[in-house]
Design brief:
Layout lengths: L28 E11 L1 H12 L6 E5 L11 H9 L7 H13 L13 E5 L10 H11 L7 E4 L8 E3 L4 E2 L8 E3 L4 H9 L14 E5 L13 E5 L2 H4 L4 E7 L6 H4 L2 H5 L2 H8 L1 E5 L30 H14 L2
Parallel strand pairs: 1-2, 1-10, 2-3, 3-4, 5-7, 6-7, 10-11
Antiparallel strand pairs: 8-9, 9-11
Helix pairs in contact: 3-4
Length: 327
């Protein structure tokens, strides 16, 4: 599944090094400054989380992602329509689905989205998740969010992946590690839109990135990788009131494929250190039910409720957020 995302496969599973792993701890988090973003499957997942838990988040960013409930729980439709032929997507169906789920109480009230800030990055040169996905995502969000709060970016023209200032592979090549050296600070662009009060980026401190066990948050049906990462600026570690941002990797970007590169090289941590932002990096896992590349579930492999608050990965991510908040 998702062969188009996997032109370069690793020949074997790369196990991340395993220094002492901590339990996820609580910090002094401002409840009004919780945001989420992601790339590719993580972009779809960030939208799902933002919509389903709209009372928790204040904004979301999607890089090479797409509209809520795009696949309608069908992995074939995810590939053929959502990724390859987004012009066939009828965003009205997704808007109606969200309203239906909200009426049933399976997701939060959609009125909460009115105050959210939304960031969308989509490249015309992305041959994996086509540019038209961003049109459909715009149509969806504009039904609930004022247009002035939605920021869409279509340059630089990059391959499929997460553009960075100086880390990763060539900007024009869609391949592992799916980080693209494009002289463009996507992480900073996202955070600067989601938060209006940021100072310039600083320098990340390696010791402030901590590995934590994810076994507290799900079982084999979730699925989650053994560990995740969390970046905690020095001030936040000492008890300062801090923001929280959740950053979701894409397919073939968990430790089996790229070790800790997304958590260390995407660019979020430099901004986090100078702006007191705790950054949570959850990690999805490969799964024999139809997810061999450790994507986040935007196509229903964990069950039909995958876009609802009760979805296996959705609820697991929220448990992590609640732990960080001390709830």
């Amino acid at each position: 599944m998702f062969e188009t995302l996997c032109a370069m496969l690793v020949p074997f599973c790369i196990q991340a090094s395993d220094p002492a792993t901590e339990n996820l701890k609580a910090y002094n988090i401002d409840p009004h400054s919780i945001t989420i973003s992601g790339v590719s499957s993580g972009g779809f997942m960030a939208v799902q989380m933002d919509v389903a838990f709209s009372s928790v988040f204040s904004g979301a960013g999607a890089v090479a992602g797409g509209v809520y409930w795009c696949s309608e729980g069908d992995s074939k439709k995810a590939q053929s329509q959502c990724m390859g032929s987004p012009e066939k997507i009828d965003s009205r169906l997704m808007i109606e689905k969200a309203r239906e789920l909200a009426a049933l109480g399976e997701i939060d009230l959609l009125e909460n989205l009115r105050t959210h800030r939304i960031y969308i990055f989509a490249s015309p040169k992305d041959s994996v998740v086509k540019l038209g996905n961003s049109d459909k995502l715009m149509e969806f969000y504009e039904s609930f969010v004022p247009a002035s709060q939605i920021h869409r970016v279509t340059t630089p023209e990059t391959a499929h992946g997460f553009p960075t200032l100086s880390n990763g592979g060539p900007c024009s090549m869609a391949a592992l590690p799916w980080l693209l050296k494009c002289n463009f600070d996507t992480a900073g662009d996202i955070l600067s839109h989601l938060y209006s009060d940021l100072v310039p980026r600083g320098s990340a401190v390696a010791e402030n990135l901590h590995k934590f066990t994810q076994t507290d948050f799900g079982d084999s049906k979730t699925p989650l990788y053994r560990d995740g990462w969390i970046y905690v600026p020095e001030a936040c570690e000492k008890g300062a009131r801090c923001k929280l941002h959740v950053a979701l990797h894409g397919c073939q970007m968990n430790p089996d494929f790229i070790q800790d590169k997304f958590a260390t090289q995407a660019g979020y941590n430099d901004w986090a250190e100078s702006n007191n932002i705790v950054v949570l990096y959850p990690q999805s896992a490969r799964d024999s039910r139809g997810n061999p590349y450790a994507c986040w579930d935007w196509f229903g492999f964990t069950g039909p409720d995958y876009v609802s608050k009760s979805g296996a990965q959705m609820s697991a991510l929220m448990k992590m957020i609640e732990r960080v908040r001390g709830l």
